[in-house]
Each structure stands twice: as C-alpha cells, then as structure tokens.
Amino acid sequence: MKSILLILGAVFILYIVYRVYRMQTLDNGLPELIRKGAVILDVRTEKEYQTGHIEGSINISLGTIRERYGELDPEKTYITVCSHGLRSVKVETILKEKGFKRVYNGGAWSDLQTTLSKKQ
To answer: Is 82 among the residues known to form the active site?
Structure first.
C-alpha cells in the first residue's frame, strides 16, 4: 500500500511539473514572438524532423549544435523545440552560453504546433 501511495505521489508531482512547464513555455507569448519573426529551431535528428515538423522551422540537432551554431544569427530570436522538451532545454542553454540573448524553450514541437494553430 505504501509503494502505491509513493507512485501516485510521484505521478501527481510529475503532472504538476508538466503543467508549470506548459504555462512557462507555450503560454508565455511564444506565438507572439513567432509573429514578430522568431525562428523555430527544431533540435531533433534529421530523421525525426522528416517525420513531421512545424512549417518554416529549421533543423539543427542537439548532436550537431556545438559545431553548427555559427549558422545562426545571434541577433535573431530563436524558439527551440524537440519531441518532448528535454533536448530543446539543452540547446537553449548551449546557445545562451555562446552569447545568444533571445532563445526560448518551446518544448515539444507538436504542442507548439497545436498552440500556433489555435492562435490563428
């Protein structure tokens, strides 16, 4: 019984963390940033990107970002996306370490795409 309660507690905490994440990313003005010219940077692998992506996004994977960040303009605004939001957080951090000032985590690309389609 105690282990069931621990599991339920862990699931509840994960749900709360997810809800906070959603509020801080997708509901934090990202569609407005995109309307103002922000670039969506999809950091999944090329194969993942080919299975579906947000129209107009560019694809530079987490695995190649340290070699390819020079292809990006540090004056532009970027919104990083991936499949679940973990890799996009890593790339956001890497780009900020490289001097990029306007980089935001967009989380899962499919969630952002849904949000964008609702805002249109």
So the answer is: yes
